[in-house]
Design brief:
Length: about 325
């Protein structure tokens, strides 16, 4: 996998390029232009950025008002605060009022590392999935980031886009098709399928390479859109694999794994299944890589999980 930039850098550069050609594109921030890599945007287009200060509820309310007036608004703030302090406004002013704001949660998951649990965003996918009329996208690499921002400008519904901070390797062929709501297959294999989201996707790709060296064929799916979920892709994987492993930088409750599990159960599909994410405990302190290693969200850790899942005896329910 070739090295790339941080998705946030690609987000900011893509948004600046689009906004230079469209004065209706506005950015609203909560003292987060620096962490959102938006300083060049502010210098180039000072009339198209609104600084609210550290007031996430106001950030969302102002963004909803601008969107209701026909502006194409990107509301940018750290995910841990944006989807907690601003949750009521996201629910009422954006989603329920049908204002197509692009809510952008930055430094999500455990990107803030050693700043600890207060700055981790392990709840955002769960709470937003429970709100009607907001789509959820978590890009895995620079390509998916560029595509979702280009698509988001004209996306007719409220949209939550989630970014981490790490530099991400390039995962896709140049001619791959991106569409909100459609997963992208990065590797095929009928022994086990990894369904991963966001910055965990490269770890799943690494695991597939390690497993291939051991004669285990592992598929990898980048489920960049959590809502609406690509149910067809999930069900196809379940019917053509011996096991499914979901991987996410989020609580094991309410995110990708829970959603996939519910879909499989409702379609009466039973196969070995494992959710890999952050368990319901006080999260260890460390860098993103250290936290990932602790919870097995590495190529080696995921390969071990796959081997254990495939080797475990199948339990037959009553």
């Amino acid at each position: 996998m070739e090295p790339g930039k941080a998705n946030l850098e690609v987000f900011a550069a893509t948004l600046l390029r689009l906004a230079q050609a469209d004065p209706d594109i506005l950015v609203v921030t909560s003292d987060s232009r620096g962490s959102g890599k938006l300083t060049p945007f502010a210098k180039a287009l000072p009339e198209q950025i609104v600084e609210i200060g550290i007031a996430e509820q106001n950030l969302v309310g102002v963004s909803a008002g601008l969107a209701s007036a026909g502006k194409k608004v990107f509301a940018v703030s750290p995910a841990c605060f944006l989807t907690a302090r601003g949750l009521e406004q996201i629910k009422n002013d954006v989603a329920y009022s049908d204002n197509p704001v692009k809510v952008v949660g930055i430094s999500a998951g455990v990107s803030y590392g050693a700043l600890g649990t207060t700055h981790h965003s392990l709840h955002d996918l769960a709470v937003l999935q429970a709100i009607n009329n907001i789509d959820i996208v978590v890009p895995a690499d620079n390509f998916e980031t560029q595509m979702v921002i280009e698509t988001a400008v004209s996306h007719p519904r409220p949209l939550y886009i989630r970014f981490g901070k790490a530099a991400m390797p390039h995962l896709h062929a140049p001619d791959v098709h991106f569409e909100i709501g459609k997963a992208i297959t990065l590797a095929t294999g009928d022994d086990v399928t990894f369904i991963a989201i966001g910055e965990t996707v490269p770890r799943a790709v690494q695991a597939s390479h390690l497993l291939a060296a051991q004669g285990i064929a592992a598929g990898v799916m980048s489920m960049h859109t959590l809502k609406p979920l690509d149910e067809t892709a999930v069900l196809h994987a379940a019917r053509h694999s011996q096991a499914i492993i979901t991987v996410e930088e989020h609580s094991v409750y309410g995110g990708l794994g829970s959603t996939v599990a519910a879909l499989l159960m409702q379609n009466r599909l039973s196969l070995p299944f494992k959710i890999v994410g952050i368990p319901d405990e006080y999260t260890v302190t460390g860098s993103q890589n250290e936290i990932f290693a602790h919870y097995g969200i590495t190529g080696e850790g995921l390969a071990d999980t796959a081997q254990q899942l495939l080797a475990a005896p199948v339990k037959v329910g009553m």
